[in-house]
Amino acid sequence: MDIKTARQIPRSTLERLLSAVPFFNTVKAEDAWQFEVLLQHSRLVTLAPGEMLLARGAGDAWLYFLLKGQLAVYPGDPGSAVAAINTITPGEVVGDLAALQGAGRTATVAAPADGKQVVAIGTDFTVFGDLEDTRVISLPTKLAHYRNTVHSLRWKLEVYRMQYPRCVLAGRHRQVRLFTGAKDTPEELLGLHSQALSLSGLLLAWNRELAGGNAQLSERPPVALAASCK
Fold this sequence. Notes:
This protein is α+β, with helices and mostly antiparallel strands. The protein has helices spanning 11-18, 22-30, 32-40, 96-101, 139-163, 186-213; strands at 2-5, 42-47, 52-54, 62-68, 71-74, 86-88, 93-94, 108-110, 118-124.
């Protein structure tokens, strides 16, 4: 694994890489100072095939935005023989479940041994502080983050629903209520955070079902899937 801080990367290269991440684009357009704060707490990670990005049970608080390559999600500890349950592609967020649930990593994430080089931008989520604390990370930046998080979680859950429509969990994310109050307010932030917590809990439940059946997301609804999702 090769890790470089934002300061070690030529600015033009860094901005070109971040242009593929909607969250960073939004922050940069709205508040240049907030963009710089995020850069101070970010790093570029490059993985060779077979290298691990996150280890199940680890307690760090880094969020990653995948820029290049693919990552495989394994429900077991590092080195276990359990098959991957999901594939992460460029544009997706990695590590959001642990940050939301306030627990250790819920899965092991690695570059497939038969894949290509992986590049991701990581940001230390501890800089966000408590949800309602806007002294370092402003309300607009937190809103941009949680809007992105809710969108990402809903999309992942919708993909699972389409792949396994007979699972008892299919469609439950649609029951998580959207925020309907005034936009760009502390109340919206609380509403988005509540949605993110509910959706992340559902995604963890899906992952447990898939791990129990030892089935990969790319498979058709399946013989190997856990009983409740047949």
